[in-house]
Amino acid sequence: MRHHPAMAGVRLGADDVDALLVGLRLLGSGGGGDPLLFRQPLRRALAGAELELHDPAALPADLQDVPVVAVGMLGATRVFTEKLPSGQEVLRAVRALARWTGVEPGASCRTRRPG
Which of 80, 82, 93, 83 is nearest to 33 (CA)? Predict the structure, then answer.
């Protein structure tokens, strides 16, 4: 996986969703479906919060042993045109994983499988 150190420290909030989706549509490599389907769930998830991007190679030594959970979705995103996700699916899955393993993740990263 390639790291982009220039993105480290960037914070994304609900006001950044439209610009992010434009970038995903222009630079996306396919297989993930139309990112516009995730506009509202992403806005809701980021309402009153920010997401900070990190370069994994630049994490301080005391954070390099923090458990990280890889998250993603499987299946055809076309289904979301019929039933939109609530935006809580990944969060619920991560919480269930933490309950099952007894390990609380300190960070998450995306996983991607081109389609």
Answer: 80
